[in-house]
Amino acid sequence: MRRQRRHGGTRLGYKKNVYHALMMITQFGINMLVPIFLCSFLGIYIDRKLDTSFWMVLLFFVGALAGFRNVYVFARKIYNMKSERDIAHGRKAGREEENHK
Predict the structure, then answer these.
(1) Domain boundary assignment for the chain
(2) What backbone torsions phi and psi does residue 71 show, to the nearest 5 degrees?
(3) pLDDT value at position 97?
(4) What is the distance between the alpha carbons of residues 71 and 85, in angstroms, rounded to a whole number?
């Protein structure tokens, strides 16, 4: 019986990469949508209490800015982790390009 539990190009490694990518996409969505929804609902609540009509719109944009900031920080953290991992494995971008020429 053959075992397919190696990480180097078999099913387990592929599934791990797919699940990791799905997790990252989900995390980006959560980081973007949660601040927008929270700020929007807070704006609706304030508008009803104060009998106004501009807090929801204002807080929606505040939530959107917070969401964009969250996504930016998360993407930068992922990029830095990837760069550190590549450096730890001795793979710098310039060195890889020289090897391919």
Answers:
(1) 30-100
(2) -65, -40
(3) 53
(4) 21
Q: Extract the tokens encoding 58.
A: 């204002």
| pLDDT tens figures, 30-89 | 999 999 999 999 999 999 999 999 999 999 999 999 999 999 999 999 888 877 777 777
CA-CA distance, 33 to 53, in Å (whole number)? 22
- Full-model pTM: 0.67
How many CB atoms within 10 Å of residue 55?
19
Q: Give the number of other CB atoms < 10 A from CB of residue 43.
A: 22
Q: Report d(CA 4, CA 46) in Å as an integer.
A: 57
- Residue 100 predicted with pLDDT over 60: no
| Close Cβ partners of 27 (under 8 Å, ≥ 6 residues apart) | 74
